[in-house]
Amino acid sequence: MRLLIDLGNSRLKWALADDDDALRIGDPLAHTDTGLADLAQLLAAAGGVQSVWLTSTAHSLTGALVDALVRAGLPTPVVFSSPKQALGLRSAYDQPETLGRDRFLGMIGARSIYDGPLMLADAGTALTVDVVDGDGQHLGGLIVPGPVLMREALHRGTAGVRAGAVVRLHELARNTDDAVWSGGCLACIALIEHTHRQATLGIGEHVELILTGGAMPALVGHIDVPYRLLDDIVLRGLNVWSRSALSQARS
Q1: How confident is the model over 145-167, as pLDDT tens digits?
Q2: Domain residue ranges of the chain, discontinuous segments joined by +
Q3: If 109 and its partner were Cys, which of 20, 27, 32, 233 is the partner (CB 3.0–4.6 Å)?
Q4: Is 133 among the catalytic positions?
Q5: How many angstroms separate the CA atoms of 80 and 62, rounded?
Q6: What's domain 114-229's superfamily in CATH?
Q7: Contact 249, 36 (CB under 8 A)
Q8: How far apart are CA 244 and CA 39, in angstroms?
Q9: Sorting pLDDT into bands at 50, 70 and 90, what band is 54?
Q10: Are 141 and 130 in contact (CB under 8 A)?
């Protein structure tokens, strides 16, 4: 049994994987910039795992998480770093280690489901989009704030826009709360649709659009491009990587 952990900017996502690649997804654990969530549920479920595999974009919390897992008696985590090439995927980045680890693993997870040209859009704290051709060449990507982060930035930077609850998405809103939330969501949707259109023109064939991320449910009802909505795509990629690494170690 393997413990897989995706430590994101606002949530820790985790799963248990067995040799048959069946994933048991745990409940996400929310955290802050300064402290981890209560790990009791994760630790109780992970008793007896033979290895721990970790990817993290919350770098300030990575050390604390590793220490907590080791203190609880779990194996020292194997931490993923983005390579130039692995598992049939070649990074477009000149400095491949600077490509977000969640982005690389997300593309691996997406390619484990669909092996043709694809675009992965992951909406969380940030919205990232990445395009991969049918040969596994990453063509590049984009990063913008996610809709919640856009809303928070507008509240911080604009004295005349009051803070409010996340409410409804309208094409044209009639109150400030809806206008702020709708503007951020529609900006993200426009980026997804524009990038998918350009990817299709550039590759010259169908590009599968794969959507994921905690903020994506707020967007999907307004996206006018056929898509697949898949949860836990980074954990899927982490599972593929961990299985491959163990196989190579045994051979």
Answers
A1: 998 888 888 777 665 555 555 56
A2: 2-81+238-250, 114-229
A3: 233
A4: no
A5: 12
A6: ATPase, nucleotide binding domain (3.30.420.40)
A7: no
A8: 27
A9: very high
A10: yes
